[in-house]
């Protein structure tokens, strides 16, 4: 079942989502407002860049504070581009499957399978492209896991192993 593609419908949906995001209501019962997204975003990014062990470990390897701050400012355009592209990917998925939900029709069993289904449906006719997409997802996941394990090993060594060795020599 292939949904029909209509630029007019898709642009209308994207416009409604973007104008809904610009809601300035101060009512705390309103789900998404510019205030809730802004304040929530500040807390989210403070936790990602301020106390995340992997990020802090990367920043501590930089020679001085000024260069560490510059590296964070250089990450900002990349972060904006990434956030924008993932948001538009969600909008594309929504507009593509708005009339036929693959979860309700049992074509997929988990919402996490929606993006791979879209890739297979739209790019499956090109040999190897779906596999390249899946390998990109796996490489990103493995990179994140490897970074987290490296940080965990460094903290364990520094805070537990070396402390216990130092205390045993006292």
UniProtKB/TrEMBL annotation:
Membrane-topology descriptor: Multi-pass membrane protein
Transmembrane spans: 34-51, 72-97, 117-138
Main localisation: membrane
PROSITE patterns the record matches: NA_SOLUT_SYMP_3 (PS50283)
GO MF assignments: symporter activity
Signal peptide: none
Superkingdom per UniProt: Eukaryota
Subcellular location field: Cell membrane
Swiss-Prot/TrEMBL keywords: Cell membrane, Ion transport, Membrane, Sodium, Sodium transport, Transmembrane, Transmembrane helix, Transport
Pfam families per UniProt: SSF
Single Gene Ontology BP annotation: sodium ion transport
Keyword Transmembrane helix: yes
Keyword Transport in record: yes
Cross-referenced InterPro entries: Na/Glc_symporter_sf, Na/solute_symporter, Sodium:Solute_Symporter_SSF
GO cellular component terms, semicolon-separated: plasma membrane
Family: Belongs to the sodium:solute symporter (SSF) (TC 2.A.21) family.
Name listed for the protein in its UniProt record: Sodium-dependent multivitamin transporter
Record organism: Halocaridina rubra
Organism ancestry: Eukaryota, Metazoa, Ecdysozoa, Arthropoda, Crustacea
């Amino acid at each position: 079942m292939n949904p029909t593609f209509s630029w007019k419908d898709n642009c209308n949906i994207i416009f409604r989502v973007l104008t809904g995001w610009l809601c300035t209501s101060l009512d705390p019962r309103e789900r998404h407002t510019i205030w809730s997204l802004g304040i929530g975003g500040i807390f989210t990014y403070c936790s990602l860049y301020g106390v995340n062990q992997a990020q802090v470990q990367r920043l501590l390897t930089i020679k001085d504070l000024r260069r560490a701050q510059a590296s964070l400012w250089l990450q900002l355009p990349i972060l904006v581009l990434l956030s924008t592209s993932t948001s538009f990917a969600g909008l594309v998925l929504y507009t593509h499957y708005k009339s036929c939900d693959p979860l309700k029709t049992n074509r997929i069993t988990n919402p996490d399978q929606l993006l791979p289904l879209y890739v297979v449906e739209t790019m499956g006719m090109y040999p190897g492209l779906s596999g390249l997409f899946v390998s990109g997802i796996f490489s990103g996941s493995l990179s994140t896991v490897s970074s987290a394990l490296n940080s965990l090993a460094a903290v364990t060594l520094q805070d537990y192993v070396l402390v216990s060795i130092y205390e045993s020599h006292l």
